[in-house]
């Protein structure tokens, strides 16, 4: 349904351009009569409606098959007060203390959240007292001291991403837009406004759809490259060993991520554990 709705919207844009040109030859192909614009708008709105229905069906499919796990309402993260929590707090404080920050926040507590991912540790909100950081509750009591040191170093290095990797992400997205803009201007200058408008409508829509998908795919590539960069700083074996240990724990979110295969896995922006392990084993 999504593809059908996209085709309807796509054709309505081309139709309005051609009809406008035939009525306002050859001054401005971007101006159309009320009838032509009305027909085009009706089809465009109908196409958008079909796309929304398709997206709704896709969402229901992803949740029903388990590709997407709906989070239950976030309960207040539980503050740690035991011996392990003190150890984790000390390790995290030391790791984040090595990261340059414009405005360093105090780290006085560790909070455990059921909805936090194992791959990420983030500071608490400013209104939370005492301030600290939030860690996945699924890792509580399952890692030793050395594992926590490696994992918190991994967390801390994520706060200073490689400029080369980040610039590569934006480069892969903005180069097609730049080439398309230059080509559209060139076509309009050489062949006139009609051909330029048709070029924009015919090429622009597929390009926008491609870039929308590519944002997610390039996001996954950026995360995997970031893992490789962290492995160079930290050492590939320690990081790989911790990832493998987390994999052996068979945490629900880890196992759920492994179920994504095919085109869903290709466009999913967050790598699953299998992809992370393969990436570090190369």
Account of the 3D structure:
- The chain is mainly alpha-helical and 282 residues long.
- The protein folds into three domains: 1-65; 78-155, no CATH class; 161-282, no CATH class.
- 67% of the residues lie in helices and 5% in strands.
- It has ten helices and four strands.
- A four-stranded mixed sheet has the order 1-2-4-3, with helices on one face.
- The radius of gyration is 25 Å and the shape is elongated.
- Mean pLDDT is 76; it is low at 23-30.
Produce a short descriptive summary.
This protein has 282 residues and is mainly α. It folds into three domains: 1-65; 78-155, no CATH class; 161-282, no CATH class. The chain has ten helices and four strands.
From the structure above, extract its key features:
single chain, 10 helices, four-stranded mixed beta sheet, about 280 residues, mainly alpha
Question: Any chance you could write out the topology, listing elements then pairs?
Answer:
Elements: H1 2-23, H2 34-65, E1 78-79, H3 83-97, E2 109-113, E3 122-123, E4 132-136, H4 145-157, H5 163-191, H6 193-234, H7 236-248, H8 252-258, H9 262-267, H10 273-281
Helix pairs in contact: 1-2, 1-6, 3-4, 5-6, 6-7, 6-10, 7-10
